[in-house]
Predict the structure of Prephenate dehydrogenase.
Amino acid sequence: MRTALVIGTGLIGTSAALVLAGRGVRVHLVDHDPAQARTAAALGAGYDEEPESTVDLAIVAVPPAHTAPTLADAMRRGLARGAGRESSGPLAATADLFEGRPWVLTPTRDSDTEVLNLALELVALCRAVPIVMDADAHDRAVALVSHTPQLLSSMVAARLRDADDTAVRLCGQGIRDVTRIAASDPRMWIDILAANPGPVADVLAAVAADLDETVRSLRALQSADETKRAEGTAGIDDVLRRGNAGRVRVPGKHGAAPTAYETVRVLIGDQPGELARIFADAGRAAVNIEDVRIEHANGQQAGLIQLMVEPQAAPALTAALRERGWSLRT
C-alpha cells in the first residue's frame, strides 16, 4: 500500500491515518469541515488535499447515514474503493487506538480479493485483530453488545433527570458505571441506530420480556402469600444468576477470559499529582495495576480509588501503600 484516502478526519479516521502515515503511506485527508482535515494534517496524519488519481485504499470514516453516499461520490470521481466510521474530533486520535481491538470485515462473494487483502493489510498495520463475519451476523452482534447497552444506559440515566436532588446525591459507582455511556452524542447514535433498527429492536424485545417477568416477581415479593413470595424470590434469583453467567463471558484484559482481581481501596485527596503518586508507589512495589476506578465522595475534597490487581499481588501493594502513608479502606 502506497497511497490512501481518509474521508472523515474524526477520531477513527485520523487514528487510522496516523498509523498509515507512520508506515510511510501517502495519506490524503478530506472532511466536510476543512478545518478538521487541516488539524489532522498538522498532527502528522497526512495531507489535507484530495488525491489526483485513484488511491490504493480509501477509508470512509463518516457517520453511518453518510457512508454509502460518501463512498459512492468518491468512486464516481475515480478517487476510491474502501470503508469505516467516525466518533469524535482529530485531537482525540492516537496511532494505537486500534491496537488489540477487533476489526470486523464483512466481504461478500462479489468482494474483490485485492481489496480484501488491502483491508487486511490496514488492519495489520493498525495492530488490530481481524474478524471476518457475515454482514447480518455483524449487525446482530453489535446490536447485542453495543447498541442495546447504549439505549439501556440512556433509559436508566433518563430516570435521574427529574429525580429528587437527595436521591441523586446518593449516586455511587454502580449508577456511574451503568450510565457512563449515556453521555454519548445523540446525533451520532441516531445515525447508528437508524442503520440497524431491526436487530436492536429484537434484543430490546427480549430484555422487555425479562423486565416484565422481573416486575411480576417483585410484585410477588410484596404479597402476604408465602407461596407467591417464594415464586418472586425464584424469579429474581433466576435473572440475577443468568446475569452472572452472561457477565462471565465478557472478555477481560487483552481479550482474554475475565480474571478475578483483588481490589485494594485507598482514600485519595483531590489535589494535583495524587493519582501519579499512588501509581508511582505501586510501581515501586513492583505491582501492576490491572484496572482502576475512582469514586468521588459527595461534598468532600476526596475520593476512594479502587486498584484492581492480581490476588497474589494485593498483600504487597497493601503493605507498600500503608508504609508510604496512604489511608486504606476495607
